[in-house]
Write a structure and sequence with these properties.
CATH class of the largest domain: Alpha Beta
Radius of gyration: 20 Å
Number of strands: 11
Largest sheet: 11 strands, mixed
Order of helices and strands: HEHEHEHHEEHHEHEHEEHHEHEH
CATH superfamily of the largest domain: Periplasmic binding protein-like II
Shape: globular
CATH topology of the largest domain: D-Maltodextrin-Binding Protein, domain 2
Number of helices: 13
Number of domains: 2
Structural class: alpha/beta
Distance between the termini: 41 Å
Length: about 350
């Protein structure tokens, strides 16, 4: 990790002209008068972050929200005629699938490489994580004395009828299972997920609602992203749910990411790169804190409520592979009857 000061990184981001893009308008400069158009599946708090970027750089941002798959299909349909410059996703698999579909251009940026660890960006620099999302075991503090310490532990029969899970159609579920396949092998991953199903989980399509169900006693343990608990703890510091960091003696807790890439057909690639570089440097704390996610840059401190969750080991090594393993994860979930 470079020790280049963040202010220096930002200067490099905005003053190096031309901006180099391997697959789109390689000599196009940053134009502070042009608008950057973003298609984003990660929308929590994004308005204030884009407003801060505009105030800092003079570059306006127009954005459209939607689910990651919907936006990818829209980009494929628009092709070379897309008005979008940047696509931002709430899931590592979906940004990787956009790259695999040829939608993204590799970006040559010293600022991005200095700020974002290698495990959290594409090998060819077509996409970069901007924040980390940890999907971990969470439990009722008033009823559970010894929570599971691994993802496999949720399959212990002691949790039969006491488990809440997100449905199989949700990308967070699919990416977690993809990571299990990568780390445990398909057969072991299948046995783990089958053991969850054997515990007759309640399927709830909302992490917030799952955590509230745990607090209310409708279930005792769940898998949820940390920022949902962060929000609930911000509203009520006594909210009776806590984190059990899984796999701390192994590969670490599952990491997903909010990520972004510059589109190969971007009308304003210079402005697009400037936005990504700002989000990774001067805007990194604001971007991650807007949704109480962990920064992608490990040198940036997370929000106070996240610091209160304690230290942990995380599985960043799986992030690049979640897209390639998405199909295998979907098939495995169907095989074991995970709803």
């Amino acid at each position: 990790m470079s020790t280049t000061p963040r202010t220096v990184r930002r200067a490099a981001a905005l003053l190096v002209v031309p901006v180099l893009l391997a697959a789109c308008a390689p000599d196009e400069p940053v134009d502070a008068g042009a608008t950057v158009t973003v298609y984003t599946g990660r929308h929590y708090g994004i308005e204030s972050v884009f407003a801060a970027f505009t105030a800092d750089t003079g570059i306006a941002v127009r954005f459209t929200t939607g689910s990651d798959p919907e936006l990818r299909e829209r980009l494929l349909a628009e092709g070379a005629n897309t008005p979008a410059d940047v696509v931002m996703t709430a899931d590592a698999a979906n940004i990787a699938l956009a790259a695999a579909a040829g939608l993204l251009a590799p970006v040559e940026s010293a600022a991005l490489r200095a700020a974002i660890p290698a495990d959290l960006r594409a090998a060819d620099d077509t996409w970069f994580a901007l924040s980390r999302r940890l999907r971990v075991v969470q439990y009722a503090t008033e009823r559970v004395a010894t929570p599971p310490s691994s993802y496999a532990g949720l399959g212990d029969p002691v949790w039969a009828g006491r488990l809440c899970l997100r449905p199989s159609t949700h990308p967070y579920t699919q990416s977690l299972v993809a990571a299990l396949i990568r780390n445990e092998g398909r057969d072991t991953a299948r046995a783990i997920v089958a053991s969850w199903v054997a515990n007759d989980p309640v399927y709830i399509n909302s992490d917030t609602d799952m955590l509230r169900a745990v607090a209310a006693g409708d279930c005792d343990v769940t898998l949820a992203n940390t920022y949902y608990l962060g929000r609930l703890r911000t509203e009520d510091p006594a909210f009776p749910v806590a984190i059990s960091w899984p796999e701390q003696d192994g590969v670490g807790a599952h990491v997903n990411v909010s990520a972004a890439g510059v589109l190969a057909a971007a009308p304003n690639p210079g402005g697009a790169v400037a936005l990504l570089e700002w989000l990774a440097t001067d805007g990194q704390a604001a971007f991650s804190a807007a949704n109480l996610e962990y920064p992608a840059d490990p040198d940036v401190a997370p929000a106070e409520v996240l610091i209160g969750f304690g230290a942990f080991t995380s599985d960043t090594a799986s992030v690049r592979e979640l897209g390639a393993l998405n199909g295998a994860a979907v098939d495995l979930l169907a095989e074991v009857g995970y709803e």
